[in-house]
Amino acid sequence: MRSVLKHSILAGVAAVALAAGGAHAQDYPAQPITVVVPFAAGGPTDTVARLVAQVMSEDLGQQVLVQNVGGAGGTLGAGQVAAAANDGYTLLLHHIGMSTAPSLYADLPYDAIEDFEPIGLITEVPMTIVARADFEPETLEDLIAYIQENGENITYANAGIGAASQLCGLLIMDALGVQMTEVPYQGTGPAMTDLLGGQIDMMCDQTTNTTTQIQAGEIKAYAVTSPERLDNLPDVPTTAEGGLNLEVGIWHGLYAPAGTDPAIIERLTASLQTALANETVATRFAELGTTPVTEGQATPEALADTLSSQIDLWAEVIAAAGVSAQ
Ligand code: MLT
Question: pTM for this one?
């Protein structure tokens, strides 16, 4: 995506720009920073971003503002950051969708590896298979039989192709060999509103967006997609307990556009680590069924490794399922 400077005069201009960038990095940040969340407000990615951004604001001495750019399963917001100035003032907080989109979209407007500088991993969030409160099946075993019987008559909410909720739905449908009717939203925040209102049957979404409603009995929870039950939802069985072959955890990462000054990336990584070590953040994450990554994982290296290995992993799963955005 980025232009390659071939001419020596242009190379000279670039050297001057780099020198200016270096001076700028010393004062960084000198203005508010925008973190683009590629899904609607009020959803699980937004929740993680706002918790982390609050502590990063205090740590960096500048406001870290969250901007929601939903659409196209997270690819719209990611594309916006890929094309943004690489000055450290526009960042992207995205999840596993960074690794699934390259296999789902033939014409992705960015390269998930080449167009971003990784800053660090943030957290891994389990998912929950949930339904409107008056949905007929009572247990995961009932649900499996109900899906197999009713297939396309069931409406399944997701946040578009490339979203975590879409990936989980894909895994459910693949495991059961049936198709449900997918209803896309700009994020699972608005999808949850419709689930609560009974306009949609079911969804698979991160615990950061379902814990409160499950605990309040406002929606039905059939399973968690983690290998063990969760402390915050001890009555919800694992998918394995109910005989569903599906395990998935949603990891989140923070990115800057490619070419951002390494000194700025270093400052942002340190600030992310400070946010993840913060007691309020850790407590809220725990209440929502998730834990921040360790300091060693909140690094550019760990995020780069995770991203590239997950791109390879999901490429195989998605090719086998025969799914694409076209
Ligand atoms: C969101 O923040 O709305 C979600 O992460 C959407 C999803 O990926 O399912």
Answer: 0.91
